[in-house]
Amino acid sequence: MTGLPDTSPGVTAQSPARYVTLDGMRGLAAIAVALFHFDIYLMPHGYVAVDFFFVLSGFVLYRSYLPRFRAGLSVGRFMAQRFARLYPLFLLGLLLGIALAVQQLMVGDPHRPVAASKLLNATLFNAAMLPSPATLPLYPFNVPSWSLFFEVVANLALIVLIFRLPRFALPAICIVAAIGMVPIILDNGSGNIGALWGEHGIALMRTAFSFTLGIIIAMLPDRGAVHGRPAHWLGVACILAIVVLLAMPMPREWFAIYDLSIILFFSPVLVFLGSRIEPVRFIAPAAAFIGETSYALYAVHWSFIEPMRAAVRYVGLAPIPAATLFMALMLIASWAAVRWYDLPLRRKLSALLRQTDNRRQTVGA
């Protein structure tokens, strides 16, 4: 998942270092993606949350890393920091997906994601965060990981190229990406495109447009960055707008136009508004919580879908209670993954990076 601020575990919901409205929107967008994969009819446009994530990622990373870049942050150090942030939960999602695939192979499940002959090939490439050349999905064990690959591509472009470009070049990137993206989405009939081989071009255009637009939003004057962001019910409305937009029912022939309205207009507008206003105080802890668990939810939910579907079919649950139970279990699992796996591992990786920096400074001295 994208749009991941590098906040420390000690940052609270009230801290000015956090964008709590953006946290809440990111959390509900991750829930929308999981619901879309579990039951498409409950969240028919959940896939367009990916474009929101890219806008959010461009905004957050530009605000977080431009001062460090100007202070001398190297490409290698930046990518190591992003790897430490992204890889642990990516790896967990991959391992869960491999375990499910092996189980499906053992029982002869016809819906298994990878044939036995391609299992090792796909595992080796995906473990390196690279798309598998042996399968149609780029990431057969954890299909949503395609966006994490393009997040890494965008991160590399940020530190190698975008920080060095003149400002007028960024709107040009957005315009070129939009010109290439719009007709493909119209032809496809929806924005649900990018996870398969043959779709990597549109995936790159979606990433370039939204990520760069997020950077442009981060460059705009922001009074709240100096004087603080006011708390208002508008912040709550921004958070809830994510669900309303992604759950909107409509005839299938309208999907492409509607998805493009979210990609081109609503996602950047919500990031702009969410970066300048906070939710009312009693909503802030819940918004911060779902924001903190959002990446874990995005990274690990895929492997739980088929087992959960089988379980709810067995007990005969209706769609809405089944989805509610699925999301409750996934939020608990995501919270546990963050607390007992992701944060401890990230601390260890960060400590290793600091030790490496200290050794280099010692040698350089």
Automatic annotation (TrEMBL):
Record-linked InterPro entries: Acyl_transf_3_dom (IPR002656), Acyltransferase_3 (IPR050879)
Transmembrane segments annotated in the record for this chain: 49-66, 86-107, 145-163, 168-186, 201-220, 232-250, 256-275, 282-305, 317-338
Highest taxon listed in the record's lineage: Bacteria
Keywords: Membrane, Transmembrane, Transmembrane helix
GO function term, MF aspect, one: acyltransferase activity, transferring groups other than amino-acyl groups
Domain Acyltransferase: 21-338
One Pfam family recorded for the sequence: Acyl_transf_3
Record protein name field: Peptidoglycan/LPS O-acetylase OafA/YrhL
